[in-house]
Amino acid sequence: LMHRPRLAPDAGMLFLFDESSDHSFWMKNTLIPLDMIFVAEDGRVAGVVARAVPGDLTPRSVGAPSRYVLEVNGGWAEAHGVGPGDRVRFENVPRF
Question: What's the whole-number mean pLDDT along residues 76-81?
Fold first, then answer.
């Protein structure tokens, strides 16, 4: 979501990794605050990085393995009650 000045309220970007790992992200060239929802191989939320600061170069992770990461608008996870341990279901996504 780099270089985007806005994101529709319920839009996002899903990262699909070949393997589970303690993935980390930074906010270089990102113009809007984001929540990063890290999802484990079993479909449970491993953790959430809430309201990551635009432009911040600090690597952000949740300290647990994830296979998927969903980036959404900052504050979305809290507004929708999404947190660690919650079950996620992806539709029309390969390998899940």
Answer: 98
